[in-house]
Amino acid sequence: MIRVWSFPALFALAGLLLGASSAARGETVTGALLAVFFLALSFLNSPLFFPRSITSAEALRRSGADGRPVVYWRPGCQYCLRLRIRLGRRARRAHWVNIWSDPDAAAAVRAVNDGNETVPTVLLDGRPHTNPDPAPLRARLT
Question: Residue 46 region, left (φ>0) first, then alpha (ψ -120 to 50), else beta?
Answer without folding.
Answer: beta
